[in-house]
Amino acid sequence: xxxxxxxxxxxxxxxxxxxxxxxxxxxxxxxxxxxxxxxxxxxxxxxxxxxxxxxxxxxxxxxxxxxxxxxxxxxxxxxxxxxxxxxxxxxxxxxxxxxxxxxxxxxxxxxxxxxxxxxxxxxxxxxxxxxxxxxxxxxxxxxxxxxxxxxxxxxxxxxxxxxxxxxxxxxxxxxxxxxxxxxxxxxxxxxxxxxxxxxxxxxxxxxxxxxxxxxxxxxxxxxxxxxxxxxxxxxxxxxxxxxxxxxxxxxxxxxxxxxxxxxxxxxxxxxxxxxxxxxxxxxxxxxxxxxxxxxxxxxxxxxxxxxxxxxxxxxxxxxxxxxxxxxxxxxxxxxxxxxxxxxxxxxxxxx
Length: 351
What we know:
CATH class of the largest domain: Alpha Beta
CATH topology of the largest domain: Quinone Oxidoreductase, Chain A, domain 1
Helix content: 25-40%
Radius of gyration: 20 Å
CATH architecture of the largest domain: Alpha-Beta Complex
Structural class: alpha/beta
Number of strands: 15
Number of domains: 2
Order of helices and strands: EEEHEEEEHHEHEHEHEHEHEHEHE
């Protein structure tokens, strides 16, 4: 199949500015394709909290000047460099978040290969990516669905299955927070292996949504300030095996009350803010649990996730918010996700 390769690309860049007004949309020359690179016509992308704080200039991590934002993307291969062996034109691919983190343990240098931060990302019509930073899309998924796997999907997968001695299995208790991408994926993954899930939300409107995904017990943390104690009571007093912690200092104290001795708190982010009263050394010692920050995951984990999705596509099909935006509506999409109205992943249709 032959593909027409354009000379120009429509893209967003992060320039100096206030809030989401720092995002600038323009048409630029097509990037050169290196010998080990794959040119992808991007069909879809999805938003992450990381993308929002990068656009707002609030991230603590290194960001390249005028970077093209976007951590997640999926599309079609249209051309390959002369040294590329893993892909051919016509292949459907999803981007890996770390472009050179294939497997093994995370290393500090890995942060230099993040899409949408250190390297140009996916909020554009075409992009050239290293062949090692791409994975084939499960045939059962659409481009929109596949675009959600890169960060949120792999992060949730790593949280629940990334520690060999603490993998979530049937009968275990998992606590998730909210209705964002990582939390929804974690709920789906936990239920798929027969685990029991306690979910929190700040909106009574979202209680039924979480129950529809299989949550065994749902509570509104705005109405129950001691939700960690409540979660422990739900488990019969023993505590939960895994807490997928997405809010940060705002909820960590309650997560410690919820987790069992020798349980795991997987720190995913800080949606509730990065400042405030934070549990300290004595709290960790008292609870005797593992507190484990998650740095998304490797390409190998993304490949594992894709195989799992393909083996059980209906249980593990990504949940996409009902509002899907066009590429030129990126600012509107960012405002929508920032407002917290979404359920599942907020996606961008590019093609």
